[in-house]
Amino acid sequence: MSLVPAARALSPSFLLRASIAVAVATIAMKGWAWWITQSVGLLSDAMESLVNLASAAFALLMVTIARRPADADHPYGHHKAEYFSAGFEGLLIIVAALGIVWASVQRILHPQPLDQLGWGLALSVLSSALNGALAWAMLQSAQQHRSIALEGDARHLITDVWTSAGVVVGVGLVALGGWNWLDPAVGIAVALNILREGANLMWQSSRGLMDEALEPEVLQDVDKVLASFRHHTIRFDHVSSRRSGQRRFVDLHMHMPASWTLGRAAAVRASVEQALMSAVPGLRVTIQLLPNDVEPHTADEEDLI
Prior knowledge:
37% of the residues are buried. α9 (262-279) links the parallel β2 (247-256) and β3. With 305 residues, this protein is mainly alpha-helical. It has helices spanning 3-9, 12-37, 40-66, 81-109, 117-145, 148-177, 182-209, 216-229, 262-279; strands at 235-244, 247-256, 283-291. α4 (81-109) packs antiparallel against α7. The protein has two domains: 3-209, Alpha-lytic protease prodomain-like (Up-down Bundle); 216-304, Cation efflux protein, cytoplasmic domain (Alpha-Beta Plaits, 2-Layer Sandwich). 68% of the residues lie in helices and 10% in strands. A three-stranded mixed beta sheet has the order 1-2-3, with helices on one face.
């Protein structure tokens, strides 16, 4: 069994629990690395791992809520809960970045030499390897399950890996050349990168909450299915779509001859629905049946303002 299918088979809940465990381990290693070196760059790395822990725990909560079935108060399900996870994680990242900037500025104002850099760098590299392996598995699973919470946590871990790489290079240069100013400079560079990632996650979260249309390639699949059913007696219009977490929704009107019986019309509609759901996994389809000579009232004047 190859690694990619194996990673995709892992559930979001399992991987987020693994992310919590890895975050605890990396906090311990990076915190130890900072303690023995007093490097503000390694401190910034450890602070980001604290954010990883909080965001993974919140993402697990939101994924659990998103899996709840529809109920009377939430007839369309709870799938949007995952978008709150991405937004919360983006906010935590931004807070952590501001903390790193503060610590880095303090070190610039009050420089001090670094100690035991070899052990500190080794611990940082080991924790980054753990984060990198987990992030790869999470991205594969996020693609399979269309989980924005899992994708957000994975991309945060990837940011952490790049952060650690920058810290290792910067602290390594301090060890080789004695340029102590590089340590806080790396910390500030790390903070700017983290700020960018946090803003990106919050933007993705807001896009999901605004009910964006389906991806262009998915809409092409929908149009191909509808084209296979089009006939001089059957036409489709008013096709609209939206995304809600792992779910996808399409609403449309299907026009057919007024002389058809309700049973015949319902049978054709069922065939169209089944074909669409087979072509697009996770799709929910709502089709309104109309005679060919009827055009529905689709918008109020207030909606057009």
